Amino acid sequence: MDLCSIASGSSGNCIYAGTDDCHLLVDAGISGKRIENGLNSIGLKTAEMDGILITHEHSDHIAGLGVVARKYGIPMYGTKETIDAILHTSSVGKVDESLFHPILPDEAFTIGDITVKPFSISHDAANPVAYVMEHDTKKVAVATDLGKYDDYIIDKLQGLDVLLLEANHDIRMLQAGSYPYPLKRRILGERGHLSNEASGQLLGKVLHDKIKKIILGHLSKENNYAKLAYETVRLEVTMGDNPYDGSDFSISVAKRDEVSEFVSV
Q1: C-alpha count within 13 angstroms, C-beta hemisphere, residue 151
Q2: pLDDT score at 140
Q3: pLDDT at residue 168, rounded to an integer
Q4: Which terminal residue of the chain has fewer beta carbons within 10 Å of its beta carbon, N or C?
Q5: Domain 2-256 has what CATH class?
Q6: Residue 59 and residue 99: Cα distance in Å, rounded?
Q7: 42 Cβ contact list (under 8 Å, min separation 6)
Q8: What is the pLDDT of residue 83?
Q9: pLDDT tens, 12-41?
Q10: Could you give the residue ranges of the DSSP H alpha helices within the chain?
């Protein structure tokens, strides 16, 4: 399986996951042109996508969805509540409703040769999910917009080959920053976003000897930066109650405005 971040950050998210015969996007939160250019850079085209997995209806995850749906007619998958919210989002525009396929958390489905396993996440959206994708013995996941994690999340992220995991903010930067208090409270809350520290702590609970790559994603532009996220997560893994050191694994940070490393397992 392959995984590549086309864009990841608080301003827009679009992740490619696929095999030789099946190509998926997780979210379409950037312009259709950026999606096409990003896919072109890894030898693919938007028209080749077999499905778009939608995590939730916030604009940084669906900004390009309407354009892509109208131009290419790609099937889209999300929970019923997410689909309903998207259909009532004026910025998406008119979309052929037959392209939407409702899914349920914890109920696997298949697109081509990929088994998709959605699972619930704690975020202030209608009914948000993250996704694990499997092909043969390989397993990748995209898990962002996590206000918190618990044993359920930890269980869903076991046995992965590649994990793109949220490391949204540095708590001190957020607290001292210019965001209004209600927004700070939302981000820090149980239905907000995962801090660098919490990301490292969660990572320490899902690491195993055979994991190939960890990609940190959905960084806040205002309250985080790549080096800080990377160092904090590595430190949390090293200091945590697990047998690993932060330097034992390949960890990178997904870029906000550029295509990131193409990972194949």
Answers
A1: 0
A2: 99
A3: 97
A4: C
A5: alpha beta
A6: 19
A7: 4, 16, 259, 262
A8: 98
A9: 999 999 999 999 999 999 999 999 999 999
A10: 32-41, 59-62, 65-72, 80-87, 151-156, 171-176, 181-188, 196-206, 226-239
